[in-house]
């Protein structure tokens, strides 16, 4: 891509913003090397990675880059046989830890991160050995080897013996006047006591140092010289053992150097991907739809570097016309439109999302050329016109039919007639060579040029005559007016002068301005009508949602009523079975009575009870007729009772059914063939995978961590309780509570709260690279 054009489009500022989102130095360096690609497949892949990275950010919070650092130089030292110190080994462990955490994080993605997961190797054995041997500050642990354990125990024993002897010396009554202070100190790695200079001859021992004033000398008493010698030898043995341990650990790293370097590079690539995703989140970006047909359609695009309330623009190019000529007042937004289009093209081809609505389309260009701004140079004797023309000459030499050209104030800085003619000739050259271009100008001749060629279209940035302020809106298809007369009149220039100026205009110029005014009025009326239509559409959607909610509510109530009725039916069946059991018992005890009489009495009682639990359910769907294929003698199921019997009598609407020892009068539409499956009550459920609206808003705003540093215990637990509720509703699976180390009281109180919290599945202290005992990582119970 053209370096000067990238500079005037302020591509470096976009990269600076990206670098601020990178997590470690190697990722930041990779951001600064980011350039737009010309390869369609590469662009498509990079945009996809940014999109799935953004999904992971929303769903699982920030990626775990804790522990990552640039260890390239350390790895080079290991490769040539160097021995690493403890801090360097810990940096390697940090990268290995980050690799393991990143594998787990990427595995949560529903999309394909397999390529990166495979490049992140598992170094748990190597990391475990380093962590077993080293403390958090990089010093070698006592238990790293049995030899080191024994040496340090000997050192501790010797130091204790030396101190005991020296303590007896300094606290001896006969030595009190000889000593400057009753303390034991160290000079040159040996234990000494401070002796007054004048008593040097009376205090036996070896002098190791003296104070700056010379009044005090530091003497190693003769009684401890041998012990100090043994201590010195033990410390030398300790140092040799430490070097042996560090050498062993360095040699364990050496075979894995290339794999660790690949892992480090992969982490840097992932840092770049997530920096793009974080930036997209900041600018509310979307992935542009890319195609190689040379078509652009930007929907509600906003310049990514502007802050505050930014007026979005709609811009399309390359379909019916390939060149756009924008006219309008100064400070109206013409240059911003050029930069917005240029930056959108660069950002898309670099794999970044653009701040525009979904469905925006961008083409892929082999080069992007921009001549924007006034770069006149005194040293090179270049005027404004010469500066512009020098840039245009360079552009013409290198452009192709797949280039994008952006020209600001085309033809400005020279005689208007010659400038307009030259500008028209340049546009004609671009048109003939099928180059996509956007140019801004104040020349009316270029408006006419656009009318004369279908491949060229007019556009304007709008201006409010009443407020004398630009609206920054872009209108395609309408040329802009200078509004010079209207502005001059409103600013107080006399009518006589303004009218005189208007009289000097040609009849053709007046007609063109009148036509433009009429078009502008029509456009405003069309925009108003479109807005009213949109308001009606939104109102229709609101009413539609309202009635759909009412329908769902009625359906739920109907389902609830049917469910209650079915429960009553089941209750009736249970009671009926009890009655039948009682009937059988009665028959057994009254064998001499008329059995038929007893059966008839019990049947009447059951029928009466059935009326009390009558289930009313419309089992026939609209437009469906009752089953008219039933026959006498056929086995059927009485749906309201969920009982099977045979038809004894059958009419058009009713049937008499023999169910066990009972005969039941039933409606035909309450019967179905016995082979048919029982009808189940259907509970309506939306089945939507989308979360409720209020939950979606929370997920966009809730952080993946809460900081309660400085809180008292009562306020902290209340804040954590509310935060956990919000995080649970936001579908977060893991959060962090930052409470600090301190005395541990706040940490203990919060962890006691987490043990009984209903949303908490488990919790643990963070790793040393992500806060250690000052942070608790909480797994939520989904």
Overall description:
- Helix 5 packs antiparallel against helix 11, helix 9 packs antiparallel against helix 10 and helix 14 runs parallel beside helix 15.
- The relative contact order is 0.07.
- The strands form 6 sheets. The chain has a 6-stranded mixed β-sheet with strand order 10-11-12-8-13-14, with helices on both faces. Strands 18-17-16-15-19 form a 5-stranded antiparallel β-sheet. The protein has a 4-stranded antiparallel β-sheet with strand order 1-2-4-3.
- The chain is built from 22 helices and 23 strands.
Defining traits:
about 775 residues; about 15% strand; alpha/beta; five-stranded antiparallel beta sheet; flat; single chain; 23 strands
Overall geometry comes to flat
| Percent range for β-strand residues | 15-25%
Major sheet attributes: 6 strands, mixed
The protein's oligomeric status is single chain
Helical proportion, percent range: 40-55%
Uncertain stretches of 5 or more adjacent residues: 376-382, 614-627, 676-700
The helix/strand class is alpha/beta
The overall strand count is 23
The chain-level mean pLDDT equals 82
Lateral arrangement of strands in the main beta sheet: 10-11-12-8-13-14
User: How far is it from the N-terminal to the C-terminal residue, by CA?
Assistant: 49 Å
SS summary, helix count: 22
């Amino acid at each position: 891509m053209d370096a000067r054009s990238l500079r005037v489009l302020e591509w470096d500022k976009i990269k600076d913003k990206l670098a601020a989102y990178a997590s470690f130095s190697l990722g930041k360096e990779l951001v600064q090397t980011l350039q737009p690609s010309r390869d369609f497949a590469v662009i498509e892949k990079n945009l996809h990675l940014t999109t799935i990275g953004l999904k992971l950010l929303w769903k699982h919070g920030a990626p775990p880059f804790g522990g990552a650092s640039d260890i390239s130089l350390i790895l080079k030292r290991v490769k040539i046989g160097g021995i690493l110190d403890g801090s360097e080994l810990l940096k390697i462990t940090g990268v290995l830890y980050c690799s393991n955490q990143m594998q787990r994080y990427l595995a949560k993605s529903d999309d394909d991160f397999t390529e990166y997961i495979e490049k992140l190797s598992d170094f748990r054995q190597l990391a475990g050995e380093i962590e077993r041997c080293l403390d958090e500050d990089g010093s070698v642990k006592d238990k790293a080897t049995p030899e080191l354990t024994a040496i340090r125990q000997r050192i501790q024993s010797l130091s204790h013996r030396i101190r005991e002897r020296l303590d007896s010396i300094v606290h001896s009554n006969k030595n009190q006047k000889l000593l400057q202070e009753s303390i034991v100190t160290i000079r040159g790695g040996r234990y000494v006591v401070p002796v007054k200079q004048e008593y040097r001859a009376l205090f036996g021992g070896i002098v190791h140092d003296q104070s700056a004033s010379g009044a005090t000398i530091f003497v190693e008493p003769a009684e401890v010289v041998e012990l100090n010698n043994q201590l010195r030898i033990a410390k030398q043995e300790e140092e040799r053992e430490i070097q042996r341990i560090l050498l062993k650990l360095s040699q364990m790293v050496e075979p894995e150097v290339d794999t660790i370097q690949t892992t480090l590079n992969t982490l840097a690539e992932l840092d770049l991907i997530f920096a793009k995703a974080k930036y997209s989140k900041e600018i509310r970006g979307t992935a542009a739809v890319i195609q190689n047909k040379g078509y652009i359609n930007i929907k509600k695009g906003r310049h990514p570097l502007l802050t505050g309330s930014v007026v979005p623009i709609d811009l399309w190019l390359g379909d019916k016309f390939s060149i756009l000529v924008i006219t309008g007042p100064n400070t109206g937004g013409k240059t911003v439109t050029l930069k917005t289009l240029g930056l959108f093209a660069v950002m898309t081809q670099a794999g970044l999302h653009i701040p525009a609505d979904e469905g925006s389309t961008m083409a892929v260009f082999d080069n992007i050329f921009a001549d924007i701004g006034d770069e006149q140079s005194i040293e090179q004797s270049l005027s404004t016109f010469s500066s512009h023309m020098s840039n245009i000459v360079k552009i013409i030499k290198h452009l192709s039919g797949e280039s994008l050209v952006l020209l600001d104030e085309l033809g400005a800085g020279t005689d208007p007639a010659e400038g307009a003619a030259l500008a028209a000739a340049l546009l004609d050259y671009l048109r003939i060579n099928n180059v996509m271009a956007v140019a801004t100008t104040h020349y009316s001749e270029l408006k006419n040029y656009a009318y004369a060629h279908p491949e060229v279209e007019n556009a304007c940035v709008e201006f409010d005559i009443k407020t004398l302020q630009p609206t920054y809106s872009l209108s395609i298809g309408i040329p802009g007016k200078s509004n010079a007369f209207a502005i001059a009149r409103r600013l107080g220039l006399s009518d006589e002068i303004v009218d005189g100026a208007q009289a000097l205009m040609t009849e053709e110029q007046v007609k063109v301005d009148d036509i433009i005014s009429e078009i502008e009025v029509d456009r405003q009326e069309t925009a108003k009508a479109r807005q009213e239509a949109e308001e009606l559409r939104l109102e229709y959607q609101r009413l539609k949602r309202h009635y759909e909610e009412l329908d769902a509510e009625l359906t739920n109530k109907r389902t609830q009523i049917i469910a209650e009725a079915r429960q009553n039916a089941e209750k009736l069946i249970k009671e009926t079975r009890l009655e039948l059991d009682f009937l059988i018992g009665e028959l057994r005890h009254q064998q001499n009575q008329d059995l038929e009489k007893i059966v008839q009495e019990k049947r009447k009682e059951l029928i009466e009870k059935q009326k009390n639990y009558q289930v009313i359910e419309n089992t026939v769907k609209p437009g469906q007729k009752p089953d008219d294929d039933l026959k006498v003698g056929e086995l059927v199921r009485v749906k309201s009772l969920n009982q099977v019997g045979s038809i004894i009598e059958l009419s058009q609407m009713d049937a008499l059914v023999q169910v066990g020892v009972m005969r039941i009068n039933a409606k035909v539409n309450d019967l179905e063939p016995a082979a048919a499956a029982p009808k189940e009550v259907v509970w309506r459920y939306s089945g939507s995978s989308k979360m409720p609206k209020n939950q979606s808003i929370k997920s966009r705003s809730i952080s993946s961590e809460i900081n309660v540093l400085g809180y008292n215990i009562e306020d902290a637990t209340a804040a954590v309780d509310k935060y956990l509720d919000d995080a649970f509703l936001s579908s977060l699976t893991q959060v962090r509570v930052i409470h600090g180390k301190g005395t541990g009281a706040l940490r203990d109180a919060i962890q006691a709260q987490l043990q009984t919290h209903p949303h908490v599945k488990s919790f643990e202290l963070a790793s040393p690279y992500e806060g250690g005992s000052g942070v608790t990582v909480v797994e939520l119970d989904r």
